[in-house]
C-alpha cells in the first residue's frame, strides 16, 4: 500500500484529557521524542481559551518553535473564528476545523445546532484555505452520539459535500464517543472516500468498546489513509468516565508495520516516547505494545 499516515494527537487530546498541566519543557521533550520516531504529522494543540483549557497554554509558542522543522506537518485545532485568527498569526500549516453530525452534540459543544453553525464553519474553511493553510474538515460523532445514539448517515454525506464545496483539503471522520463498528465504518468510509476523490480521508477512532483497531482496519478497506493516534494511549472518551481514548500510537505502528506500512517509523522510538508520557503522568494509559515491548524485542516479533 505505502500510503497510510498517522497523525499524533497526544499533545492535544491526551493533554486536555488529563488534569495535570505540563510545563513547556515537558511538552517539548515529548514532541521531540515523537519526532525522533519518524511520525510525519503531529498535532501540537488547540487554539482555545486557556482559562477554560489550561492544558493548551503556550500553543502559539509551540508552533513558533517548530515552524521550520523539515519533514513533519504540525497541525492545530480551531473551534471558532478567534481560534482561526490566532492560528493564522502563528503560521499554522494544517488546521482541523469541525462540526458534529449530531445536532444535540453540536449544541452541547457550541450552543448552536448544525444548520446554524454550518455557514460559519464553511466560511472558516474558506478563509483558512485562502490564507494558504491546509484544512482537514472534520465531522464529529460521525458513527454515533452519546446524546442521540445512532446518527443519520446522510448527515455525514451532506456535511462532506459542504466541506468539499468550501475547498477543504482533507475530510476527517471522528468516532467521538467510540460507538463505531467495523461494517459501519467501512460502509461510510467507502461513500465519503468516493465523494472526496483525491482528497484524503482521515479517521479519529476512540476505543470505548475495544473496537478501535478493528475499526481502523475497516477504515483502510473503505479508503481512509490518515489515522489519529495518541502516544501511550493518552486520552479518554469525553462522555464516558474511565473509557480509553484514541488507540495508542505504538500499537498502531506495530499493527501497520505488519501490513507493510510505516516502515520508516521507529517502533522503539515511539515506545520511548510512550514511556516518557507515562513517566510524566505517573500512570499507565491504554497502550499494550509499550508494556510488552521488551518481550517483542527479545523474541524478534517485529517485521
Short description:
The chain is an alpha/beta fold. The chain is built from twelve helices and eight strands.
Can you put this structure into words, describing what you see?
The chain is of the alpha/beta class and 303 residues long. It has a single domain, classed as Alpha-Beta Barrel (TIM Barrel). It is 45% helix and 15% strand. It has 12 helices and 8 strands. It has helices at residues 10-16, 24-36, 59-65, 81-89, 103-110, 114-130, 153-166, 182-196, 212-221, 249-258, 267-281, 289-298; strands at residues 5-8, 41-47, 73-78, 94-100, 134-140, 170-175, 201-205, 226-229. The chain has an 8-stranded parallel β-barrel with strand order 1-2-3-4-5-6-7-8, surrounded by 10 helices. Strand 7 (201-205), helix 9 (212-221) and strand 8 form a beta-alpha-beta unit. Helix 2 (24-36) runs antiparallel to helix 11 (267-281). The longest helix is centred in the middle third of the chain and has 17 residues, at 114-130. It starts with a strand and ends in a 5-residue tail after the last helix. The model has no long low-confidence stretch (mean pLDDT 94).
Amino acid at each position: 500500500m505505502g500510503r497510510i499516515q498517522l497523525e499524533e494527537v497526544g499533545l492535544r487530546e491526551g493533554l486536555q484529557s488529563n488534569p495535570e498541566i505540563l510545563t513547556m519543557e515537558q511538552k517539548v521533550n515529548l514532541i521531540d521524542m515523537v519526532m525522533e520516531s519518524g511520525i510525519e504529522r503531529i498535532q501540537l494543540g488547540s487554539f482555545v481559551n486557556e482559562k477554560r483549557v489550561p492544558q493548551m497554554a503556550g500553543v502559539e509558542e509551540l508552533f513558533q518553535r517548530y515552524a521550520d522543522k523539515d519533514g513533519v506537518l504540525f497541525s492545530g485545532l480551531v473551534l471558532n473564528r478567534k481560534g482561526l485568527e490566532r492560528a493564522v498569526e502563528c503560521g499554522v500549516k494544517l488546521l482541523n476545523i469541525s462540526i458534529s453530525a449530531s445536532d444535540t452534540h453540536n449544541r452541547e459543544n457550541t450552543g448552536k445546532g448544525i444548520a446554524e453553525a454550518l455557514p460559519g464553519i464553511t466560511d472558516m474553511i474558506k478563509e483558512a484555505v485562502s490564507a494558504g493553510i491546509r484544512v482537514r474538515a472534520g465531522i464529529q460523532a460521525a458513527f454515533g452520539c452519546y446524546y442521540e445514539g445512532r446518527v443519520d448517515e446522510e448527515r455525514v454525506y451532506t456535511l462532506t459535500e459542504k466541506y468539499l464545496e468550501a475547498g477543504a483539503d482533507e475530510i476527517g471522520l471522528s468516532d467521538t464517543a467510540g460507538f463505531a463498528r467495523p461494517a459501519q465504518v467501512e460502509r461510510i468510509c467507502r461513500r465519503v472516500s468516493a465523494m472526496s476523490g483525491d482528497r484524503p480521508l482521515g479517521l479519529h477512532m476512540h476505543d470505548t468498546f475495544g473496537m478501535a483497531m478493528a475499526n481502523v482496519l475497516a477504515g483502510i478497506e473503505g479508503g481512509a489513509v490518515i489515522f489519529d493516534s495518541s502516544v501511550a494511549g493518552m486520552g479518554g472518551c469525553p462522555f464516558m468516565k474511565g473509557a480509553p481514548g484514541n488507540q495508542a500510537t505504538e500499537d498502531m505502528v506495530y499493527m501497520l508495520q505488519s501490513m507493510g506500512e510505516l516502515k520508516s517509523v521507529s517502533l522503539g522510538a515511539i515506545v520511548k516516547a510512550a514511556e516518557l508520557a507515562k513517566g510524566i503522568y505517573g500512570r499507565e494509559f491504554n497502550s499494550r505494545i509499550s508494556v510488552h515491548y521488551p518481550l517483542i524485542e527479545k523474541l524478534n516479533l517485529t517485521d
